[in-house]
Specification:
By secondary structure, the chain is an alpha/beta fold. The protein folds into two domains: 246 residues, nicotinate phosphoribosyltransferase (Alpha-Beta Barrel), CATH 3.20.140; 175 residues, Alpha-Beta Barrel (TIM Barrel), CATH 3.20.20.70. It has 16 helices and 19 strands. β6, α7 and β7 form a beta-alpha-beta unit. It is elongated, with a radius of gyration of 25 Å. 43% of the residues are buried.
C-alpha cells in the first residue's frame, strides 16, 4: 500500500532525455545492459544492506509519460514531435535481475542489472540510483545501530528531521528491515504494519503543575503502557517521581513499562536511575534512552556500562549523518553484441552482464563472493545472488512481505563473520573476479 505518487520516467535528469532523443534519431533500439553498484565503502563501512527493490519494481511496472509530462517537454524546445510521439507510448519492456531486499552485499558487486532496449534502460538511471541508493544507505546505517545495541531493542525516532515526509516513511521501512523493533512514525506504521512506539514530550510534562502530576495523569490514561520522560527538570528527581507514581500504579494492579532519558550524561545517569528503581522494588521497569544516538553512541555507552535497556535512534540514523550518500552508480556494460567498460581514472567498471556468487562454509557462513559473467558456471556449492525479478516489463512474482524481508536480512547478517561487522570497517570481505570476466 502506498500514498505517494509514482514518479514514472519523468523523474529523471535532463541528459537522459536528450540522449534518448539522439538514440531515437539514430535508430539505436537494440538491447543494452546496465549494472547498478557501489564503487566504494563510506568511512567505517564494510558491507551494505540491499533495500528499495520493491519500490523500484513497482515504479517500473507502471513507467509511462503523462500528457502533462509531454506538454512540458515540448515547451522546452529540446524535443521533436516525432520523439514526443514515441514517448507517448513509452513503457518499460525489459528484464531486471537483482539481489533480494535484505541481502548483504559489497562494493563493486551489482545489486541490480537491467537489460532492455537502450532508451528504456538509459532513462531508468536517476530513478534506480535514487530509490535503491537511499534505502540501502539507511538500511546499512540501521543494521550497524542494531548490531551495536547487542540485542537491546532499537526504535526509529527520526521522522521529524529526515528530508521530507516520504523519506521519513522509507527510513522507517528500511530500518525495520535491518532489525529496528518499531518506529514513532504513525504513517509508516499504517503503510507497512510496522509496530509503533512512543512515550511523551517535555511539553506534556510542563503542561501540568508538577512532574509527578504529569506522570500520574499519563498513568491513568495508559495504565499498562506508560513510559515516563524523566529529564524535563532534573533527571534524578524525575526518577524518584516516576518511582513514586509507579508504586501507586502497582497498588492498583497496573505496571509502569519504563522511563526515558533524553539528555545528560547517559552512563552515570542511567546507573543512578537504575538504582532508584531497583531500591523501590521496580527492577522490571526498563530504562529507555534517546537523544543523538547512532551506532557509535550506542556502542560507547554500552562499553562504559550504561544501564540502558532500549534506544530511540533519530536524526543521525534517519539522515545517515556520518555517511549521508553512497557512491552508487548505474553504468552501461553491454550494447548489442559488444561488452562495454568505462576507463575513466578512478571510475573504471566491470564489463558485461554479471552474476554474483557466494561461497558458504559447512555452517552456512558466508566466506567469499565472486563476481562473474551472467551465464558463467562457478563451483556447484556457490549461491547465485541476482534473481530474475522482472521479465518483459512485468514483475515475476509478488514481492515478499516486510516481515519476510526482515527475516531474510536477519539470516543473511547472522552468516556474516563478526570481523566484517566492525564499526570501524577495518577488514573487507573477500570479493573475487572470475577468470572469464577478467579476460574480457
Amino acid at each position: 500500500m502506498a500514498i505517494f505518487t509514482k514518479p514514472g520516467p519523468f523523474f529523471t535528469d535532463l541528459y537522459e532525455l536528450t540522449m534518448a532523443r539522439s538514440y531515437f534519431e539514430n535508430k539505436m533500439f537494440d538491447n543494452a545492459g546496465f549494472s547498478l553498484f557501489i564503487r566504494e565503502y563510506p568511512k567505517g563501512r564494510s558491507y551494505f544492506v540491499a533495500a528499495g527493490l520493491g519500490d523500484a519494481l513497482e515504479g517500473l511496472a507502471d513507467y509511462t509519460f503523462t500528457p502533462s509530462d509531454l506538454l512540458y517537454l515540448k515547451s522546452t524546445g529540446l524535443f521533436t514531435d516525432d520523439f514526443l510521439a514515441y514517448l507517448k507510448d513509452f513503457k518499460f519492456t525489459g528484464t531486471v535481475r537483482a539481489m533480494p531486499e535484505g541481502t548483504i552485499f559489497f562494493k563493486d558487486e551489482p545489486v541490480l542489472e537491467v537489460s532492455a532496449p537502450l532508451i528504456e534502460a538509459q532513462i531508468l538511471e536517476t530513478f534506480l540510483i535514487n530509490t535503491i541508493g537511499f534505502q540501502t544507505m539507511i538500511a546499512t546505517k540501521a543494521a550497524r545501530c542494531v548490531h551495536a545495541a547487542a540485542g537491546r531493542p532499537v526504535i526509529d525516532f527520526s521522522a521529524r528531521r529526515t528530508q521530507g515526509y516520504e523519506a521519513a516513511v522509507k527510513v522507517a521501512r528500511s530500518s525495520y528491515i535491518a532489525g529496528f523493533a518499531a518506529t514513532s512514525n504513525v504513517l509508516a506504521g499504517k503503510l507497512y504494519a510496522i509496530p509503533v512506539s512512543g512515550t511523551m514530550a517535555h511539553s506534556y510534562v510542563t503542561s501540568f503543575e508538577s512532574e509527578a502530576d504529569a506522570f500520574a495523569a499519563y498513568a491513568r490514561t495508559y495504565p499498562d503502557k506508560a513510559i515516563f520522560l524523566i529529564d524535563t527538570y532534573d533527571t534524578i528527581q524525575g526518577a524518584k517521581n516516576a518511582a513514586k507514581v509507579a508504586l501507586e500504579m502497582v497498588k492498583k494492579g497496573d505496571r509502569l513499562v519504563g522511563v526515558r532519558l533524553d539528555s545528560g550524561e547517559m552512563v552515570s545517569l542511567s546507573r543512578q536511575v537504575r538504582k532508584i528503581l531497583d531500591d523501590a522494588g521496580l527492577a522490571d521497569v526498563k530504562i529507555f534512552a534517546s537523544s543523538g544516538f547512532d551506532e557509535y553512541g550506542i556502542a560507547d555507552v554500552i562499553d562504559q556500562g550504561a544501564c540502558i535497556d532500549a534506544f530511540g535512534v533519530g536524526t543521525k540514523m534517519g539522515v545517515s549523518a556520518d555517511a549521508p550518500y553512497l557512491d552508487i552508480v548505474y553504468k552501461m556494460v553491454c550494447y548489442k553484441d559488444r561488452n562495454i567498460r568505462k576507463l575513466s581514472p578512478g571510475k573504471v567498471n566491470l564489463p558485461g552482464e554479471k552474476q554474483v556468487f557466494r561461497k558458504t562454509d559447512e555452517k552456512g557462513r558466508s566466506v567469499g563472493d565472486t563476481i562473474a559473467l551472467k551465464n558463467e558456471k562457478i563451483q556447484d556449492n556457490m549461491i547465485k545472488l541476482l534473481d530474475l525479478v522482472m521479465e518483459n516489463g512485468r514483475i515475476n512474482s509478488p514481492s515478499p512481505s516486510l516481515v519476510e524481508i526482515r527475516d531474510a536480512f536477519s539470516r543473511n547478517f547472522s552468516c556474516l563473520d563478526e570481523a566484517y561487522k566492525s564499526l570501524n570497517g577495518v577488514e573487507n570481505y573477500p570479493v573475487a573476479i572470475s577468470h572469464k570476466l577478467l579476460e574480457i
